[in-house]
């Protein structure tokens, strides 16, 4: 039961992060990027926990994790306007220095996220194996983006 409660708390955190991000998008792209990445982190934690068996799998939680990753993949790249490369951000200069490569990296995330979202359908993956097949490739894209386009503090 504790694992299910953790999964539900993770889903609530994702919803709150996206809700807060949308309100600040026009005013502060850096804060919006941070909110989106917080939701991605929560989805990765929830989904990764289910993949490892640390959190009980449920179709609803699986669908929430996938939907969060998909939503991020569709919106995240929109919040890097000129001038948003300074301030309290961990976005690497390579984003603005190499926009074509940056867009290719975003597509590496968007493609499996979209495939997972479509595979999840209306009800979500019906079992853990289906979730693994859909969500695993999405998680596999995170490392290269973080290594090449994020400044570690």
From TrEMBL:
Binding locations of heme c: 142, 145-146
Pfam families the record matches: Cytochrom_C_2
Designated name of the protein: Cytochrome c556
SUPFAM superfamilies, sorted: Cytochromes (SSF47175)
Coiled-coil stretches noted in the UniProt entry, renumbered to this chain: none
PROSITE patterns attached to this UniProt entry: CYTCII
Signal in keyword set: yes
GO MF term list: electron transfer activity; heme binding; iron ion binding
Post-translational modification: Binds 1 heme group per subunit.
UniProt superkingdom: Bacteria
GO cellular component, one term: periplasmic space
Stretch forming the signal peptide: 1-25
This protein's UniProt keywords: Electron transport, Heme, Iron, Metal-binding, Signal, Transport
GO biological process: electron transport chain
InterPro entries: Cyt_c/b562, Cyt_c_II, Cyt_c_prime
């Amino acid at each position: 039961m504790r694992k299910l409660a953790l999964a539900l708390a993770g889903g609530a955190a994702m919803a709150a992060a996206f809700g807060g991000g949308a309100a600040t998008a026009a005013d502060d792209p850096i804060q919006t990027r941070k909110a989106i990445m917080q939701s991605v982190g929560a989805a990765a934690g929830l989904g990764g926990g289910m993949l490892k068996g640390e959190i009980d799998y449920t179709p609803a939680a699986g669908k929430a994790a996938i939907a969060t990753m998909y939503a991020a993949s569709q919106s995240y790249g929109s919040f890097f306007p000129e001038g948003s490369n300074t301030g309290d951000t961990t976005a690497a200069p390579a984003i603005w220095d190499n926009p074509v490569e940056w867009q290719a990296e975003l597509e590496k995330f968007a493609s499996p996220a979209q495939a997972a979202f479509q595979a999840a359908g209306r009800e979500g993956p019906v079992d853990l194996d289906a979730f693994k097949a859909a969500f695993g490739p999405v998680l596999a894209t995170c490392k290269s983006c973080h290594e090449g386009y994020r400044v570690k503090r």
